[in-house]
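User: Here's a chain of 391 residues. Predict its fold as tokens.
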Amino acid sequence: MTKSGSTRRAALGLGAGALAAATVGCTPQWVGGDEDPYAPWRLWDAPELRDTPAALVAAAMLAANPHDTQPWRFRVGLDAIEVYADLTRDLGAMDAALREMHLGLGCAIENMTVAASANGFAVDILPAPGPLPSLDAARAPVLAATLRLSRAAATPHSLRAALAARHTNRYAYDPGRPPNRDWIDLAKALGGEAGVRVQLMESGPRRQAFDAAVLDATEAIIADAQMIADSDRWFRGSAAEIATHRDGPTLETAGLSPLKLTLAKWFPVSAETSHRAWLDLTRDTQLASAPMVGLIVVADRYDRPTALAAGRVWQRLHLEATRRGLAMQPLNQPIERIDRERQLGLAPEWERRVARLTEGGGQATFAFRVGYAATEAAASPRRRLADVIMG
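Assistant: Prediction complete.
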């Protein structure tokens, strides 16, 4: 055995008996280990996991999710995987309706469907019905969906390689190079059967209104002491914090230039300076350079199956973009302000403002930008499999 293969096996701690036990719900000791916070990006396709339900969970862990909170837990059996919302990993006032949490769970489910075919499974997804759970609900995990598994012939998926290559890219995009036509056509066709649609904007009054809404919402979040505090508490500014928590936004994923990244590491700045830098980056780099922006629109953004479906559409959009060399980034600030207004019982000013951006009716639940980036995005830290599999 090669040294790298030996290291990987040691990190996973696998054995045939332990694997069988883990997949029927026992304590998953076999997926522990002291691997670094970025190891899941390399170990998710380990031979020891292939053709097991655990391989689907390993793929789910790489999905997009709000603020890298990774708000998921999984109960793994031989013929089913239950997906739970981990309410202890909420964003507080930044996700007052737990809407973004469930979008992230939808992203994880989509990754599992991509991984399923290559590992010899067919998947039937059964979302939990009803509205999103309350932020004030009990802290116990809440079932979001069940994936029924059945054996099928292993078939390579066109997006499989994109699972570990997809990262949120906050750098400048090429403003003169919009996405290619086949991605645009695919985006417009996604989600129809689930009542989800994608709206794209390149230029014109609606695009200008979109950019202004993102900037104004960013300023409103910064001015909202509770929202910005709930966002800041997830930031991991040092290698020690990353190693301890294995989650959250980091300096490496912020879209900073090499010089600014170095300065930020050596000379910590005040929260006020950091927030101003976020606003400046949003205005001067992310919006200014984006050749295209978009919205994911649904009938009811607070319906749980709909939120999961919208998350699946975002993940599929991002995987398809990654396969084509495109970069993507969420710009959800206006919709986060809608949730905050709703939480505080305020007049729905942001609801009305975002509604004016939405063609054809419906409710926007996700906003983003897309384009070609010259700078490759960094990976975010990820928790161990042992952290997310329920005993």
